[in-house]
Batch of 3 targets.
Target 1
Amino acid sequence: MALRNSKKNWSEFLISVFLLFIFWMIISFPADVYSKLGFINLIEHAVLGLIFAFIIVYIYPLNIFNSDEIKKYINVKTLFRLGVYFIRLGFDMCFAGIDVARRVMRKKLLISPGIVQVKTSLGADDEIALNANSITLTPGTITIDAQKIKKGSIFWVHCISQESVKEILETGGFVEKIAHVYGKKKK
């Protein structure tokens, strides 16, 4: 990741604070909001999260998000496609979990573990990160390494079954879906 200009403009600062605050609220949401203490806990969590978000963004010397990244994600089409992608990823994770359970619960294991190298056309840092994390979140696969190359990226993936991964790679897997999220055409 290239170092960014350490000067922060107000829009980047406030959007970074807002996104960190939202992240904080998601990971620390109190379980019982509707009781007396639950509402008080919610207010306490919100105030604490806002304070932490301001401190982190103020102290961190680099911009967390630059203007180009902000523009990319404020686009309504991109946000909608990203939401659809996450829904599809959830289904893929469920089906992969069922497949892994089916493979390991048989008397004769249907696994052929190995490492597969995958070349993709994804070149932006956020696209590479989304693909690597999507692969790792899917049961039966783990991204070992991801590297940016001149025209795209290379991933090394450890998988429970090389045959199923080769089949997914031939059909495009996550790469086509991620390219669609960011509005890239098929080549």
Target 2
Amino acid sequence: METVFLPRQLVNQILHQAQSSPETEVCGLIAAKNGRPRRAIAVANVASQPQRLFQMDPKGQIDALRRMREQGEELFGIYHSHPHAPAEPSDEDLKQAGYPDALYLIVSLNTKGVLEMRGFRLRDGKAEPVQLEI
């Protein structure tokens, strides 16, 4: 199983965002420099049912990708939360996955007092789990 190292500050930023919006799925991009993840960029969720789906605001996503390029960064990952479901890709997540080289992080708020974060590579309609080290 592939192992991916994430800085604690980045993980804390994503978890905080998920906790700040416990009834809707939050989403965003993870920027990296020289292959090392550095920061999370929140992008508005414009899905019609944000409590169970996520769809990044197209303009927000394009702006975030442009800023990454301007700063010499690359797309490392995509994250979103599941307020009422496990930290596993849904069928919709698998269908919508458009970046096969990106790490997909899912945060579940569906746990008792503990947040769960899991990582995956989503390719060809399948989820390959990734070991996360913080």
Target 3
Amino acid sequence: MTRVDWAGGMRFVGKGASGHEVEMDAAEPLGANSAARPVETLLCALGGCTGMDVVSILRKMNTEPKALRVEIEDERATEHPKVIRKLRLVYVVTGPVPAENLKKAIDLSLAKYCPIANTLAGVAKITYETRVDAA
């Protein structure tokens, strides 16, 4: 079970089964700007979820990257509830990772393994690109 408690003002603290806390707050003047916004937290979760998949799959292919970063751009509707309409993910990989391995790992993550990507795909168009730094 995940639990989210109001911590005063517009600050909330969530805690999932792992026991780790996730802090959220609103921007000023509504909140104190003391933590990430809920949608930022969702997008970070997407990046972490697909990133973990990609690293795991690349490890199995014996092509683990030296570094991996997922940059996420979102486009939202202009009217409330301002849902996310489009997501563009840029996977930035450092190390000698063959492009075909990277593509396969990302495709598997987005289509099969990442529950967050698959949930968001029901409402948002998700596209991606890759950048590889062979250093």
